[in-house]
């Protein structure tokens, strides 16, 4: 067969080669594309930007990242087209999410909208740490070059900010977009759902529906999945039913993800019979389908129904095993978990990061230092030691096993220190009474750009209370609302009252209790009663005791503290009355004992 003239021409025709390589890339014919590349190499042709871009695209679509990178490195002076091709390849296929960003940072190119879109896509696969560092810088570049209004760039920024946990900036980008497509809406709606901003998720969906009613873009299956997840978390049954009806009436693509969302929604909300009917009617089930239904049964105490469905599952997946394991733990059946774990391993299914995060805090075997070290070793061998949930579980387990150095070492070796990881180490430090270290870590957390949550605030305030650091506690408590916009909840008020009461600042503690926007509970009033007893304030003690009596009349500790307060003040009759009250409600002090 006579070869076409352009294939045998010397020098070769680059446009003809480029056109054919593009056809190979589009059709997925890697072998033919490699033959063309080999021909160019045999003719000693150095790839131009045009040919190089086509070859990079060919190898990228075949997930041959090393080949794509070799082509790029052989281009003498890569143009923006070649740069975009390799950045897209890295964003799609590199196991290192930071690879595209690092390559771009080392370049001197002027990015266009395709460059920024590729970089932002790579952030979508990265952890929150990288997104937090880079999203703002890429946003600034987009504004500087007039690319912030580009729809693809804006959608990428929304996703990157959401991945960094900066939902406020994601919303700002969304609001500034001159035109939004369904990806724009879905990016923000799903980010709200992932961040736990469920009410905002539903509000935004309603805004989208108003736009749709006026002739604008409408929801698709991705929208429905995110909104149903938010409905499930809020137990917003009526709202979820309307979303389900909308999906059915508008003929949205009912793929397996939407079916799973519907089953998960009804199961989470306790509509188990309806969830099971949907489950049985699914045209195709996957592991997530079984996990959603099993989790629904377990969440509502129907352990045997969950186990029965697990035993007859006709698909296999680690998520099903994890759903059963979590359900057993949730229902107090920890003794069954170890046997299930052995059964899972015997079936050829090995624990993953989610499995570890479930079993490490709950299975008695892992409450010992040896057990924690074994779990940690498994995590390291299987590359799960950087999983946020596993790191958090290990920090907590090492701390509870008394090996504080182990908890600190896990934290120090963690590359992506998310809010959960910071909160875990601060809680561990606080539990070991290291108030100064807890304050130092809390300060480092803020300096690292990580916004503390209520767990972190409670941990550091607890440490301050136990160490008598009242001034530090006040400063942190006041910063919650003023600096971080977080309204203190009962736990933080309890910590602050404890700090003031331990320091003898009973008047300040009482004023804080009276200023609370909700009625104090026993966690708040208990420390105040103890403070009154410690510093001999009989009048305050009786006032607090009477309030505690209304809240928890069967707590013997309150009677004992109040009786001792009266006794220490020489009020023997009042002390006896308190003891009589305790006996009158059928309570008695548990006597002490000695092993000597």
UniProtKB/TrEMBL annotation:
> By what name is this protein known?
Pentatricopeptide repeat-containing protein
One of its Pfam families is: E_motif
Q: Which domain of life is it from?
A: Eukaryota
User: Could you tell me which residues the PPR repeats occupy?
Assistant: 13-47, 150-180, 181-211, 255-289, 317-351, 418-452, 453-488
InterPro entries given in the database record: E_motif, PPR_At4g14850-like_plant, PPR_rpt, TPR-like_helical_dom_sf
Provide this UniProt record's keywords sorted from A to Z: Repeat, Transit peptide
Q: Which organism is it from?
A: Urochloa decumbens
Record PANTHER family:
PENTATRICOPEPTIDE REPEAT-CONTAINING PROTEIN, REPEAT (PPR) SUPERFAMILY PROTEIN, PUTATIVE-RELATED
């Amino acid at each position: 067969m006579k070869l076409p003239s352009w294939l045998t021409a010397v020098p070769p025709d680059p446009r003809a080669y480029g056109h054919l390589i593009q056809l190979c890339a589009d059709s997925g014919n890697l072998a033919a594309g490699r033959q063309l590349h080999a021909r160019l190499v045999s003719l000693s042709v150095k790839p131009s930007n045009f040919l190089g871009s086509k070859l990079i695209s060919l190898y990228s679509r075949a997930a041959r990242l090393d080949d794509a990178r070799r082509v790029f490195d052989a281009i003498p002076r890569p143009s923006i087209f070649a740069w975009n091709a390799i950045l897209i390849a890295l964003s799609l296929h590199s196991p290192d999410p930071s690879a595209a960003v690092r390559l771009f940072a080392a370049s001197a190119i002027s990015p266009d909208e395709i460059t920024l879109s590729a970089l932002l896509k790579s952030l979508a696969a990265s952890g929150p740490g990288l997104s937090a560092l880079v999203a703002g810088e890429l946003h600034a570049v987009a504004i500087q070059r007039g690319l912030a209004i580009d729809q693809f760039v804006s959608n990428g920024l929304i996703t990157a900010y959401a991945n960094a946990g900066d939902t406020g900036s994601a919303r700002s980008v969304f609001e500034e977009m001159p035109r939004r497509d369904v990806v724009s809406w879905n990016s923000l709606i799903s980010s709200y759902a992932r961040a736990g901003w469920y009410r905002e998720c539903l509000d935004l969906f309603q805004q989208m529906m108003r736009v749709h009613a006026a002739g604008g873009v409408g929801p698709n299956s991705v929208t429905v999945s995110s909104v149903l997840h938010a409905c499930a978390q809020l137990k917003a049954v009526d709202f979820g039913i309307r979303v389900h009806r909308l999906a059915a009436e508008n003929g949205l693509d009912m793929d397996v993800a939407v079916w799973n969302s519907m089953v998960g929604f009804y199961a989470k909300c306790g509509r188990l019979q309806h969830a099971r009917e949907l489950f049985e009617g699914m045209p195709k089930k996957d592991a997530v389908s079984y996990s959603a239904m099993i989790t629904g049964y377990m969440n509502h105490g129907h352990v045997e129904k969950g186990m029965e469905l697990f035993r007859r599952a006709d698909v296999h997946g680690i998520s099903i095993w994890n759903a059963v394991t979590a359900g057993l733990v949730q229902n107090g059946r920890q003794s069954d978990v170890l046997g299930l774990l052995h059964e899972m391993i015997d079936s050829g299914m090995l624990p993953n990061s989610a499995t570890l995060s479930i079993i490490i805090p709950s299975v008695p075997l892992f409450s010992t230092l040896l057990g924690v070290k074994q779990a940690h070793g498994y995590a390291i061998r299987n590359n799960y030691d950087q999983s946020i949930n596993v790191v958090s579980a290990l920090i907590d387990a090492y701390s509870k096993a008394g090996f504080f150095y182990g908890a600190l070492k896990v934290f120090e070796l963690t590359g992506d220190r998310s809010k959960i990881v910071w909160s875990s180490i601060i809680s561990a430090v606080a539990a070991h009474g290291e108030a100064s270290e807890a304050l130092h870590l809390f300060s480092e957390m803020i300096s690292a750009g990580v916004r503390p949550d209520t767990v972190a605030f409670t941990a550091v305030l607890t440490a301050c209370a136990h160490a008598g650091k009242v001034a530090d506690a006040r400063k942190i408590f006041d910063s919650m609302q003023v600096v971080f916009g977080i309204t203190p909840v009962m736990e933080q008020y309890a910590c602050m009252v404890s700090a003031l009461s331990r320091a003898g600042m009973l008047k300040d503690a009482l004023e804080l209790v009276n200023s609370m926007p909700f009625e104090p509970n026993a966690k708040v009033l208990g420390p105040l009663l103890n403070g009154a007893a410690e510093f001999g304030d009989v009048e305050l003690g009786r006032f607090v005791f009477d309030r505690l009596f209304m809240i928890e009349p069967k707590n013997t500790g309150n009677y004992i503290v109040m009786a001792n307060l009266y006794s220490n003040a020489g009020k023997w009759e009042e002390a006896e009355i308190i003891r009589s009250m305790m006996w009158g409600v059928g309570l008695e002090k548990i006597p002490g004992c000695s092993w000597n």
